[in-house]
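During the no-cost extension, the postdoctoral fellow (Dr. R.K.) reprocessed legacy sequence entries with the updated structure-token encoder. One reprocessed record is reproduced below for audit purposes.
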Amino acid sequence: MAIREIRVVPDPVLRTPCDEIREITPAVRRLVDDLLETVDDPGRAGLSANQIGVSLRAFSYNIEGKIGYVLNPVLEETRGEQYGDEGCLSVPGLWYKTRRADYARVRGIDLDGNEVVLEGTGLMGRMLQHECDHLDGHVYLDRLEKEERRAALKQMRNR
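Re-encoded structure tokens follow.
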């Protein structure tokens, strides 16, 4: 197990859709261990594999004291709406109001091939959508309204 370095924008791994995990190998087990250890830090709600440089469909989460992971997540359902502050470990120090569905449900598997269903509203719903976006090669800045996105990109350039 290791705490891994977080990749930040504009690292191309963050813009590359991740590959499905086809076999549970020792490397996949180590990846899950690293995801769990790296997300286990105050203020971290979720972490996708590509954020630590691995282009596989996996993420870990740390919501309200519950830490876990899911492999090959598929965002199955969203509904409602929330509009609130969102940040990202790969876009350090920037928080912008982002529109998301309030409720989200994700289905995937665990390391034993058992089905995993994660669902929730509020922060959990936001995290599920945020991490699935990462695995599809998107960062939350892509979801900002035009003026906010322009401001965020300007702020990033001026760092």
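The chain has three helices and seven strands. The first strand starts at residue 46 and ends at 48. The remaining legacy entries will be reprocessed before the final report is submitted.
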